[in-house]
From TrEMBL:
Residues 4-121 form the VOC domain. This is VOC family protein. It comes from the Bacteria. PROSITE patterns: VOC. It comes from Kitasatospora misakiensis.
């Protein structure tokens, strides 16, 4: 079997709030409780295991490859919630979308401060 990413743990101040945010903003199925996690399953069988953490949350970066239609839908959800978004991971270009690699990308934060990225192309993508 080839090496595949199966899951990663997403630390959160409030696991229910973060899991609900991820599923709603990305348009995914409801999370499933598997103690001590709320499991958010992505289309490629990778899971985000959201875990409540007391104290400081080490923020991370989670990037999601989406199609053009999904990108528009997700960004519409971000805008509808009044969430700030940026064209870059350093949050220097507010309210903008990038055009890297011949696609589009944007960054926004989840309730715990994780830097979420949606993108329609990845580096080196020759489609």
């Amino acid at each position: 079997m080839a090496v595949q990413l199966n899951h990663t743990i997403v630390p959160a101040r409030d696991d229910e709030e973060t899991a609900r945010f991820l599923t709603e903003i990305l348009g995914l199925a409801a999370p499933v409780r598997s103690e001590p996690f709320l499991v958010v399953r992505l289309a490629n069988d990778v899971a985000l295991d959201v875990m409540r953490v007391d104290g400081e949350i080490p923020t991370g970066h989670y990037a999601f490859l989406v199609g053009d239609e999904e990108f528009d839908t997700i960004l519409d959800r971000v805008r509808a919630r009044g969430l700030p978004f940026w064209a870059d991971p350093f949050h220097r270009h507010a309210g903008r979308v990038n055009d890297w690699f011949g696609g589009r990308g944007a960054y926004f934060e989840d309730p715990s401060g994780h830097n979420l990225e949606i993108m329609t192309r990845v580096s080196g993508d020759s489609r």
